[in-house]
Design brief:
Layout lengths: L6 H8 L2 E5 L4 E2 L5 E2 L1 H14 L4 E4 L11 H18 L4 E5 L5 H14 L3 E5 L7 H13 L5 E6 L9 H10 L3 E6 L4 H10 L4 E4 L3 H4 L11 E5 L11 H10 L3 H11 L1 H8 L17 H10 L19 H14 L7
Parallel strand pairs: 1-4, 1-10, 4-5, 5-6, 6-7, 7-8, 8-9
Antiparallel strand pairs: 2-3
Helix pairs in contact: 2-3, 3-4, 5-6, 6-7, 9-10, 11-13, 12-13
Protein name: Dihydrodipicolinate synthase family protein
GO molecular function: 4-hydroxy-tetrahydrodipicolinate synthase activity
Keywords: Lyase
């Protein structure tokens, strides 16, 4: 675990490679329980079978808004326990976002005590008074904890920090060392790097890596919170091989690999089911049921309740048909799978 004082030096070296954002497998009536065996299997698969060096816990794909405080704490504890059993050096990233600063503090202190390496705070989803309010939120947490902190700048919050607002948080809160820029606005990430050149930035728009932004030092050599385990299997390590080419600055080879392996086409074939509910197309979501359906196609356990908890909707048959076709075309499942 990196303390607040160590955070920035630690982040520049430790945040590397693929970081898997874990879903939460539900079971029982209405999904009111968590299938802990399935969750442990997922962790072992990501860290052990795939060899991914980082985990991203209790965040959007995990449906943190639908989890109790106790569930969120236990999910993190199990990730640390199973992840470090498979790889003692695995980097565990905890998303401790919450609607109230006091709940966020409780979760961040728990992450610190449980042995997580860094805690990310997503911009609060309601009553956020711009960058000034988010700065107060970060300052409140940082004053009461001693762990590396990251920003999670996602449109699912309803408010996305501007580059200058993020840079101000970085400059005024020394524990802040990294940011997951999830708004798909690379021009803002470039500006943020200019304002805070030592901040570790991950841009969700993957095209910037092909444009040489890693070589230029604008973005970091890591996927801080992806569903990388849904893009490959131990037998066909498509995602890992692609990113190794990028990290080694073999950009032409990476572009060829993306095209020839089918990864580029896969993004198009999947459509927007991971991040868009058709009944509210203007809203960026993390549709838990869609991620878990993909996992089920690859043979990963998702619990006997395959849906998201409310207030998310159940994944429609149309989505399942499109997703299954995408996996068949990529070759990760058989034509009859």
């Amino acid at each position: 675990m990196a303390t607040a004082g160590e955070a920035r030096a630690w982040a520049r070296n430790a945040l590397r490679g693929i970081g898997d954002s874990l879903y939460t497998p539900f079971c029982g009536a209405d999904g009111d329980e968590i299938d802990w065996d399935a969750y442990r299997t997922l962790i072992r698969y990501c860290v052990g079978d795939l060899g991914h060096p980082m985990l991203w816990c209790t965040s959007g794909i995990a449906e943190f808004w639908a989890l109790t405080m106790d569930e969120r704490k236990r999910l993190l504890e199990v990730a640390i326990e199973e992840g470090r059993r498979a790889n003692p050096d695995v980097v565990v990233q905890a998303c401790t976002s919450a609607m109230t600063a006091k709940d966020c503090l409780e979760l961040t202190l728990h992450a610190q005590q449980a042995g997580a390496d860094i805690a990310y705070l997503q911009t609060p989803m309601m009553e956020t008074h711009g960058g000034e309010g988010v700065l107060r939120f970060f300052s409140y947490i940082a004053a009461r904890t001693d762990i590396a902190l990251g920003m999670f700048n996602s449109p699912s919050s309803g408010y996305v920090l501007t580059p200058s607002e993020s840079a101000r948080i970085y400059h005024e809160v020394p524990a802040v060392c990294a940011t997951k820029e999830g708004a798909f606005r690379p021009e803002s990430s470039r500006r943020l790097h200019q304002l805070a050149p030592d901040l570790v930035v991950w841009e969700c728009d993957r095209t910037v890596y092909r444009a040489g932004w890693l070589r230029a030092g604008i973005v970091c050599p890591a996927q801080l919170g992806t569903a990388g385990y849904l893009f490959e299997t131990p037998q066909r390590r498509l995602f890992s091989e692609y990113w190794e080419l990028v990290y080694n600055d073999k950009l032409l080879e990476a572009m060829d690999y993306g095209r020839e392996s089918g990864l580029d086409q896969f993004d198009l074939d999947l459509g927007s089911w991971w991040t868009c509910y058709p009944g509210r197309p203007e809203y960026f979501t993390h549709w838990g049921g869609a991620f878990k359906y993909c996992a089920s196609l690859l043979g990963l356990p998702i619990g006997d309740y395959p849906h998201s908890r409310p207030p998310q909707a159940e994944l429609p048959a149309e989505a399942k048909t499109q997703i299954q076709s995408a996996y068949r075309r990529l070759g990760l499942i058989s034509a009859s799978g």
